[in-house]
Amino acid sequence: MAKPLRKDAQRNRDLLVAAARELFAERGLDVPLEEIARCAGVSIGTLYNRFPGRADLIDAVFADRVAATRVLAEEALDMPDAWDGLVRFLTGVCEMQAADLGYNALASERGPYAAASEEAVAEGYALMRRIVARAQESGTLRPDVTLEDMVFVVWGHARTVEATAAIAPRLWRRHLALLLDGLRTPEPSPLPEPPLSPEQARRAMSP
């Protein structure tokens, strides 16, 4: 069990997480750590004492988003209509991406993750696989769609958010609706290329 932090150490940690959350949301994940420390009002040494690497800070900042994604997936699986569950899950993830450029970047590329987030991401993928399988079993999701195909929904949405957030912040909803229409049965057109394999998807998302 982790030893509780002293009050001053906990305060510094909270300040760093709050500063990082704000800066990541506004500008993405590449904000210099020195700037985060300065915004939090602490030294860069204090930042490294609390968070040895960027991945550890990202873990702390986005722990609530990772947990919220899991809740979304579980709620989707509980919905009576499998297609509605798939739509609710994808819409919820896209809403979180649109609201936070840091999370948008985290959701659309590989890492950096610390060990705790790696485990949470793996659990999230397992839930997503069940959402996809359930929709296909209901006959509402085209049968040739794979979990790896869902990567393109997230990637495409991420780029739409980046390009239009400042000029049309709700345009992503139109983009998502078009993508969902292409995923739904009946009578989809044959896809011209095979899906990515899990290994290909992993390589494509690696930095």
UniProtKB/TrEMBL annotation:
Pro residues bias (residue ranges): 187-197
Q: Which residues bind DNA?
A: 32-51
Give the Gene3D superfamilies listed for this entry.
Tetracycline Repressor, domain 2 (1.10.357.10)
**Keywords from the UniProt entry:** DNA-binding, Transcription, Transcription regulation
| InterPro entries from the UniProt entry | Homeodomain-like_sf, HTH-type_TetR-like_transc_reg, HTH_TetR, Tet_transcr_reg_TetR-rel_C_sf, TetR_SbtR-like_C
Q: Which domain of life is it from?
A: Bacteria
- Entry keyword DNA-binding: yes
Every copy of the HTH tetR-type domain together lies at: 10-69
Any one Gene Ontology MF annotation carried by this entry is:
transcription cis-regulatory region binding
Q: Where is region (Disordered) located?
A: 184-207
The name this protein carries in UniProt is: TetR family transcriptional regulator
Organism the protein comes from: Planobispora rosea
